[in-house]
Amino acid sequence: MVNRKDLDPEASPQAAFGARFRRLREELGLSQVDVGIPMGYSGTHISGVETGRKFPTLRFARRADAALGTGDSFEREWREMNQGSLLEGFPEYVEYEESAVEIRLYEVGVIPGLLQTPQYAATLEAEEVRRGAATREQADERVALVAQRQATIMRTVPPQIFVVLDESCIRRPMGPPSVMVAQLDRVLEFADMPNTVLQVAPFSMGERRPFTLPISILTLPSRAVVSYAQSSQRGHLERESTSVLRALAAYHQLQAESLSRADSVAMIQEARKGLL
To the nearest whole percent, how much of the chain has pLDDT over 70? Predict the structure, then answer.
């Protein structure tokens, strides 16, 4: 097979999932396109999962079981693979994110994944490992997922991305100053992109801040909206339109109360100078 990438099933649970999926698909004489059609995925997406470039989601696992006649074995494998690694609902959220036409993010305390540099992401995960909250393998998978998500949104027709950062995101140091300087440079580059709107919600907003936890709201090609909110221990993907629309209204309020793009950039530049 031309350009076939051999995957070591022992490399990681994600690699084992992809290798098993490919083995069973080939035993049935199905191409990536053949199996992708009933599953609702492109051949390219199937290839990404098989070679470890795309993280399988719960929906993917369930449809794999249906397409390959494997009962619920892929779903069980997915649950074992993600136990303690990704919060509930997040893999499904990432899959929606891949096709979203609008992405709205609000983050507290840390720079959101779509804007993180590899060094910043690695710094966060290294602390998780040090505290025993994640294994080294889980940390590496999370850092890889950050890069995968960033690559996904750099498509031919990119989504419109709105980001509101609580001031704590740019004030809270992560790692040595060089890591934070590079991260703030990345945020400033993001703010200058034609498909982005970046704002800072200053501490002075006080009680007017409508959210106390991070939240993400996606507008899909169908114009349906979904939201994802999480705490340190739990995640929740919301598809019910009434609840999501309330969150969207609160997000618009947040944007109206936050600093303008120009004032936000000025605050970030000021924070960066303080690190030099």
Answer: 92
Question: Residue 269 pLDDT more than 70?
Answer: yes
Q: Which of 46-60, 97-111, 127-141 has the highest mean pLDDT?
A: 97-111
**Contact assessment for residue 22 and residue 11, using Cβ atoms and an 8 Å cutoff:** no
Judged on CB neighbours under 10 Å (0-12, 13-18, 19+), 149 is middle
Report d(CA 148, CA 30) in Å as an integer.
27
| 230-257 pLDDT per residue, tens | 765 567 888 888 889 999 999 999 999 9
Number of other residues whose CB lies within 10 A of the CB of residue 146? 21
Q: What are phi and psi of 190, to 5 degrees?
A: -60, -45
Question: Could you read off the pLDDT of 188-224 as tens digits, one per residue?
Answer: 999 999 999 999 999 999 999 899 889 999 999 999 9
| Widest distance between CA atoms in the chain | 62
Alpha-carbon span 212 to 206, nearest angstrom: 11
Give the CA angle between residues 252, 207, 167 to the nearest 5°. Answer: 70
Strands 160-166 and 102-107: parallel
Give the H/E segment covering residue 235: strand 235-238
All domains of the chain in start order, with CATH: 13-82 (1.10.260.40), 90-112+152-273 (3.30.870.10)
Alpha-carbon span 120 to 110, nearest angstrom: 10
- Rounded to 10°, the helix 13-27/43-50 angle is 130
